[in-house]
Amino acid sequence: MQYQRAQEIVASPSEFEVSYNGVSVWIDKLHEDGRTATVHLRHSLEERSEVNVNELKEH
């Protein structure tokens, strides 16, 4: 996914399905480096990971 698209998803009031390594995630925060984001699994609010935005996929 491109960083610009990730920004649009985060800013949108609608829900979009996004996955990381085949697992459904929420994007919590986009980092200022323009390459990474903090995400969490849809079923676990406590488990957060920093990932490369280009590894996220929109469904």
Automatic annotation (TrEMBL):
Keywords assigned: Sporulation
Gene responsible for this protein: sspH
Inducing stimuli: Expressed only in the forespore compartment of sporulating cells.
GO biological process: asexual sporulation; sporulation resulting in formation of a cellular spore
Record flagged with keyword Signal: no
Family: Belongs to the SspH family.
InterPro entries recorded: SASP_SspH
Cellular component GO terms, alphabetical: endospore-forming forespore
Localization per Swiss-Prot or TrEMBL: Spore core
Pfam families associated with the record: SspH
Chief location bin: other
NCBIfam families reported in the protein's UniProt record: SASP_H (TIGR02861)
Name this polypeptide is given: Small, acid-soluble spore protein H
Keyword rRNA-binding: no
